[in-house]
Amino acid sequence: MGAMSTLAAWARLLAVAAGYAVAFVAWQRVMPFSVASPWFVVVAMICFLGLAFVAQPIVMIRMPRPLRTIPRWEVEGGFYRALGVPAYGRLLRRTPLRLFNRDVYLHDGPGDTQRVAAELEAAEASHFWAALAVVPHMVYLLSRGLWAPLLWVSLAQLLINVYPIMHLRVARSRLERLMLRALRRRDGRR
Asked: Any idea what the Cα angle at residue 123 is, between residues 69 and 44, rounded to 5°?
């Protein structure tokens, strides 16, 4: 990335962060709310995902090392199928939801696999860290016996982070197999 594009990426990131801050202050003045509110937590989770996406050209977020490798049981067999992950993936790919992150799709054929692999992991990592950031609030709701807010936050967590993580892990595994096959074919031709 050149100096101008890095500067532009930083400007975008700072502009989005400033926009979030201004919106937070303005909304707090118009309609005061508690930062402990489950609705605030869900909105903050979505804002975190937006910031992670805008920050991606500057810093590629990674999964924690122990979670980078995808065990075979996770993507093969019926576990994810039973949870409806393939259907969730079809929903993402076949609807306008695919526009949320077009970087996780192959654009330039097989030569594009390294870039897409990094983008898939970055998307997975952003959902992972967003999910992790919400856990303390979920524990707080649980400790207070606030079952209805816990249900809503859990549902948001499931739809906004957990299912995307599972779908991205399946996609990453599929891409890794594709890259391995291409490497074997290339090595076989030598």
From this structure: 125
Task: Name every residue whose Cβ is closer than 8 Å to that of residue 115 and which is 6 or more positions away in sequence.
Answer: 103
Residue 45 domain-assigned?
A: no
96 located within any domain: yes
How many separate domains does the chain show? 1
**110 within 8 A of 185, measured Cβ to Cβ:** no
Tell whether 59 is covered by a domain: no
How far apart CA 97 and CA 100 sit, in angstroms, is: 6
> What is the spatial distance between Cα 81 and Cα 75, in angstroms, rounded to a whole number?
9
pLDDT tens per residue across all 190 residues of the chain:
666 688 888 888 889 889 989 988 898 888 887 877 888 888 889 999 989 988 888 888 899 999 999 988 888 878 899 999 999 989 988 888 887 777 787 777 666 788 888 889 999 999 999 999 999 999 999 999 999 999 999 999 999 999 999 999 999 998 888 888 877 877 776 5
- Does some domain include residue 40? no
What's the token pair of residue 78? Answer: 């019926």
Q: What b/e sequence results for 121-149 when a residue is b if at least 16 CB atoms lie within 10 Å of its CB, and e otherwise?
A: bbbbbbbbbbbeebeebbebbeeeeeeeb
Label residue 109 exposed, middle or buried (CB < 10 Å: 0-12, 13-18, 19+). exposed
> Which residue range forms the structural domain that includes residue 126?
64-189
